[in-house]
Amino acid sequence: MIRVLLAEDQSMVLGALSALLSLEDDLSVVGTATDGEAALELVLTLLPDVLVTDIEMPRLSGLDLAARVREECPAVRVIIVTTFARSGYLRRALDAGARGYLLKDAPATQLAQAIRRVQGGGRAIAPALAEGAWDDPDPLTERERQVLREAESGLATAAIAAHLGLSEGTVRNYLSEAISKLGAGNRAEAAKRAREKGWL
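The line above is the sequence of Response regulator; the predicted structure tokens follow.
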């Protein structure tokens, strides 16, 4: 029996996934969570074989959750199930340690097969994304990404600096680098382009 933990912030989707996977003879849903922090606590407590998680979740994103699970419970395999059909997200998911990346519009049988494949040591990647994942590499450093995320929410340079514990000059440098790398005219445009590519 493969023990599965589900993390998804939309209750209806979470319930549907749980019900569908429970129909499989060899899969057992041992827990569910509606935010990333709760999911991490359950991973540490229940030690499931596979964690299936969304990307966009409160308190801890699915990508951050995958990285924490790899660090704290490396035996637990992670599969991302999302609406984001962007190669940038796939690259970041794989870099965070995810073994699978599927789209929510895929048939439920595909998720069950992916869980089995990942539990067996393989990978399960949405075919439409696998091809383009390495064609358009993410140019941002992790710190540039952090600063750009803060800028995207409308914070001024001083507020970003205070929040991240950096000097204002350093924040300006990171923003300038990000804007330049993305070929954007300003911080808002840079954030928009990075978000569209799946790099934020």
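Note on the example: The chain has a mean pLDDT of 90. The CA atoms of residues 131 and 199 lie 17 Å apart.
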